[in-house]
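HUMAN: Please help interpret these tokens:
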Amino acid sequence: MKKLVFTDLDGTLLDLKSYSFMQSIEAIEKLKSAGVPVIFCSSKTRNEQEFYRESLGIRDPFIVENGSAIYIPKGYFKQSIPYNTYVTGDYEVICLGKSVDSIRSVLLAKREQLGLNFMMYEDLPPEEISMLTGLDLKSARRAKARDYSETILRGSLSESFYTAIDANGFRSIPGSKFETVISKYANKGKAVEILIELYARENDDLETFAIGDSQNDAEMLAAVDNPFLVQRPDGEWAELADVTAQGISGVGPKGWVRVVDLILN
């Protein structure tokens, strides 16, 4: 049986405060040795996820910006991909979302029309992004280089704002720290389902797992056979309305490692 592991990053594989993956390295090596793909499914950008993939020696597909696009290394699947794709660098990309330029255009217009004071990545230099997020400068620059989403880093929003972006084909997703605006058509669950379909074309028997920590992971968790939640820093587990996930003791990476042990053993 072929196993697949889909995972969130912040607050799961990565420490929520330091963004360190050191606690997860041994478990990742176990998954790689067992031939289990480790598929990132996160709000993080392509640049951010590439950094962690390269640091950890992971070569599997990955899902960026809350399900906005799927990046598949060229030649990863033996069969041709039965979806519209475009090629960038070493990847074939399945795009589910809309461009960041279209999102920012709407956000700028609504901010002015509604008299709001929120700030997003586009508004701030890397130094200020670093202060707000806890990222180092290089990581802040990677986070700023967005393709399919924009994140509200500070300031107030309103019900009128949510109504306005909905009317323009976008939605706002609360993450572990900030809210991110994406296309209505971008969906972690849909992206996971597409990848499962692609793996199933080349594997007769699949068992799928997903690891998350927040409501933002609900779509991903609902799309797999075995959904898991790790504890939040307050010791609680996220409350999910539409999916029942197994809560694992251990905050962030500590819980993530325990899930990997369950998957492999």
